[in-house]
Amino acid sequence: MATIPVRPLPSLSALGLCAAFLIGPAHAATPAVHKVAAPSDLQPLPMVSSGRILITPAPAAADFGGKDYTAQWPGIYFRAAFTGPTVFFRIGKSNEILHIVVDDETAPPFVKPDPGVYQVGGLRNSDHIIAVLVATESQDGPNTFGGFAIPADEKALRVAPTRRQIEFIGDSHTVGYGVLSAKHDCPNGQVWSNTDHTSAFGPIIARHYHADYQVNAISGRGIVRNYNGFPADTLPQAYPFVLFDKKQRYDDPAWKPSVIVVALGTNDFSTPLNPGEHWKTRDELHADYESTYVHFFAEMRTHNPKADIVVWATDMADGEIATEANKVVQQRRQQGDAYITFLSISGLSLGACDWHPSLGDEKIIADRLVHAIDADSHAWQ
């Protein structure tokens, strides 16, 4: 089977951030996507995916390979390659916004699409790369993708794997929470509709390095304390698992990121302690945060002993977040971890929903993180 390469765009501005994730051959046509009854002569199309995904048998889905791909962490994407004018994909439960990208063209966003089979037509009879990218967060429950298929008379291609992997761990700042909004007030579901992970700093950095990426982040979660003390798993408690139900631990020997970017602490420290919380003083909260974060990195090292870890924080909360995160990094370095660094990022407008990073801020964060990664001679080795 022939292999088709994926190459990065020279510029992100012309096509928009989500469309710029991939580009295939230069025979692009605007994709037309319609829900259809599945034809009987389809062949499953090999695909690659990234993110924490639970693969299970799919009843009555043989034409698409007979598998369901269920995911809940943000930043999930699927891509495949083929020769021909038509491709199909199948959607299961999908309480999310999807971006459908064919070569350098993007269909209108799919907002909570109905389950079923969708046909992408209007393409030239040539080589193409198709990608389905999840833009939104799914804390309420997982969603399911059913794979790609093509007509029997078309040719399946393989997408060449990338040589680099990068992982992003964090909270709403990493998710891309409300990033499309130009105002702070986002009532009545506007946070959800304005959240677009494909426009966040993580995918921007991944595109810069032509790397596959994972985003393991949950809005509102912290290291030991969630936003304003609300009860739910913290990020370190949820991190080891494929889905948020914590029924299956994540273990993929093929996922070995060379760079891991982490930002946690905003939710631990951005609000005052409430009566009845576990910590009686701010000093107690600091001590718990530091010891838990240090342990989290020690556990991370058992799976990624040589990855470069970049810990970053904003100057919010009068610098408390950055101060505490930097303390953790210094403790790890004192313990002999030579591949961990800290970066403080200031000067953000925080103009999106609920004072979150704006589209302009995402580019600033990405630029500063790229500079920090490039300054490390060990990175990508």
Overview of the molecule:
- With 381 residues, the protein is of the alpha+beta class.
- 45% of the residues are buried.
- Helix content is 21%, strand content 29%.
- The two termini are 30 Å apart.
- The model is unreliable at 7-27 (pLDDT under 50).
- The chain is globular and about 65 Å long.
- The strands form 3 sheets. Strands 1, 4, 7, 9, 10, 11, 13 and 15 form an 8-stranded mixed sheet that branches.
Task: Summarize the SSE layout with pairings.
Blueprint: E1 3-4, E2 32-36, E3 42-45, E4 47-50, E5 53-57, E6 67-71, E7 77-84, E8 87-91, E9 97-102, E10 105-106, E11 110-111, E12 116-121, E13 126-134, E14 143-151, E15 155-159, E16 164-170, H1 172-175, H2 190-194, H3 201-209, E17 211-217, H4 235-238, E18 259-263, H5 266-269, H6 282-303, E19 308-314, H7 320-334, E20 340-345, H8 359-374
